[in-house]
Design a protein that fits this description.
Largest sheet of chain B: 6 strands, mixed
Distance between the termini of chain B: 57 Å
Number of helices of chain A: 0
Number of strands of chain B: 16
Structural class of chain A: mainly beta
Distance between the termini of chain A: 28 Å
Helix content of chain A: under 10%
Structural class of chain B: alpha+beta
Shape of chain A: globular
Strand content of chain A: over 45%
Strand order of the largest sheet of chain A: 2-4
Strand content of chain B: 15-25%
Number of strands of chain A: 4
Helix content of chain B: 25-40%
Oligomer: heterodimer
Number of helices of chain B: 14
Radius of gyration of chain A: 11 Å
Order of helices and strands of chain A: EEEE
Chain lengths: 32, 434
């Protein structure tokens, strides 16, 4: 199963993840 | 071999013309096929026609009855296991797929009746600390891909994209039009609630609460006899764990009026407090923001569209949570195929995420549009949404053409926010086996 998130954010938004990284519920994905 | 390699004379012959011509034809055919793979076909309305594209392995898998296989898989995994076998079986499963048995809520493995039951296990309160970032992971899994959306195309893997409109569905002005997808708008009307949502106050049991009161800036009510309860936000994850999704049902049910009993009033106040808390986290005045479009295809100046894809492997915790404070305004259920969504398939099957069955939850957050799309797969075809009991996925029957969806609107779910409000990390639903 997969979850796709699509969202609008300011251009200053930065992801804090890497492709292939394992994440858990509540982990930071990104921030403005 | 050495003698043959060194002593055999090399003789050069001109290729027959026919062989050369065949070679050229083969090269042209391969080029054409590669172009066709990348070409986007559109229908008369300009919408992309979604087709199965990929190498031969993909077409072989596509010929299998995946939906029936998925349902059979679900049935087998719902069979009750002997009590003596459960601890051994689940420990073996946990060992094979790397599950952490120490973090599950019910540690007594004999209490999980089937593998499906164990698969949909809950975690202990506090097992997942929630970061204070604006957006957090909604699930346990692996990041497959992320980035910005350019020209309304989402990158599935490097070089392979799919249409954002195909993923989320296209808004049609006239749903009765034969050209439009067969969208069924399922409204949950409540005139009283709708009226409230248009104004800046809520009327609860004859008591008017202004948004300022609900948002916590004042504690007095117009009647002076009742005040809303504290609007302090509960610990999001704890809230989700404790409630098991079921937030107070008073204002949530279709057609139910605000004429609630005293007992219900407490629940109602909790609900309003929760909604107000979400509104505050979204940094907005809900009644003023409710008219914003959620099509997702236009963004405010200075903003961009971003995406993230998270893959949940078989051993992962399979419930998903809210990634931020947001309001879900509608859901679109796309019945589709149930291909595996493993990285292997994602690299080979184009349009994988728009071919598979999925539930697009569309709404808004503090920066504008927000969408979350749980996508089913062969082993986990059932998608549950806690606040949408009417949703049924992976049902028997032939799937309609890709792009067709049924829609539910959550406008009556909250009198304040014109949708289903969710706090960060609040449990939203999950994937079940089969």
């Amino acid at each position: 199963s997969t979850i796709v998130l699509v969202f609008e954010a300011p251009k200053s938004f930065e992801f804090a993840i890497q492709a292939g990284q394992k994440v858990k519920v509540g982990n930071r994905l990104g921030d403005v | 071999l050495v003698t043959a390699w060194t002593d055999t004379p090399t003789k050069w012959y001109p290729l027959p013309i026919a062989v050369g011509a065949l070679l050229l034809v083969a090269i042209q055919y391969r080029k054409k096929a590669a172009r066709a793979e990348k070409e986007v076909m559109v229908d008369e309305d300009g919408n992309e026609v979604i087709k199965l594209k990929g190498p031969w392995q993909v077409h072989v898998i596509g010929a299998l009855p995946l939906r029936n296989m998925s349902r059979l898989w679900g049935y087998l995994n719902s069979l009750e296991l002997p009590v003596w076998f459960r601890p051994y079986g689940f420990r073996l499963y946990a060992f094979a797929f790397g599950c952490n048995l120490e973090e599950i809520e019910i540690e007594d493995l004999t209490r999980y009746r089937s593998l499906g039951d164990f698969f949909y296990r809950k975690l202990k309160a506090g097992a997942r600390p929630v970061d204070n970032a604006v957006i957090v992971s909604p699930a346990d899994g692996t990041i497959l891909h992320f980035g910005t959306i350019e020209n309304l195309r989402v990158e599935q893997v490097k070089g392979i994209t799919y249409s954002l409109d195909a993923l989320l569905g296209v808004e049609h002005a006239d749903p009765q039009s034969p050209q439009s997808p067969s969208s069924t708008v399922v409204e949950f009307p409540n005139d009283e609630l709708s009226a409230v949502a248009h104004q800046e106050f809520a009327n609860v049991n004859g008591i008017e609460y202004s948004l300022d009161q609900l948002l916590g800036t004042s504690q007095s009510s117009t009647s002076g006899t009742n005040t809303p309860t504290s609007t302090t936000a509960p610990s999001p994850f704890k809230h989700a764990q404790d409630s098991d999704t079921d937030r107070p049902a008073v204002p949530r049910k279709h057609g139910e009026s605000f004429d609630a009993s005293v007992e219900q009033e407490g629940q109602l106040q909790d609900t309003l407090a929760h909604d107000a808390s979400v509104a505050r986290e979204m940094g907005m005045r809900p009644a003023l923001e409710r008219k914003r479009s959620t099509s997702g295809t236009s963004v405010r100046e200075g903003n961009s569209l971003f995406f993230t894809v998270i893959y949940l492997a078989p051993g992962d915790y399979h419930r998903f949570h809210s990634p931020t404070a947001w309001v879900v305004e509608k859901r679109r259920h796309f019945v589709g195929e149930l291909f595996s969504v493993s990285p292997y398939m994602a690299k080979r099957l184009q349009n994988l995420f728009v071919l598979n069955e999925r539930v697009a939850l569309l709404g808004r957050w503090r920066y504008g549009f927000f969408g979350m799309v749980p996508v089913g797969a062969t082993n986990v075809g059932s998608i549950k949404i806690n606040f949408d009991k009417a949703l049924r996925t992976n049902e028997r029957g032939r799937p309609p053409p890709p792009g067709t969806y049924t829609e539910a609107v959550y406008s009556a779910a909250s009198p304040l926010l014109n949708g289903q409000p969710l706090a960060p990390a609040e449990e939203m639903g999950g994937f079940c086996l089969g």
